[in-house]
Amino acid sequence: MSKKGTRNPTITRNESSVSNESTETVATSSSQNQEAKNSDGSVNIQTKAYIDTVLQTITAAIMRSMQQMMDQQLETQRQWNLQCIERSTKGLRSLNK
Question: Where in the sequence is the domain holding 66, given as residue range(s)?
Answer without folding.
Answer: 43-97
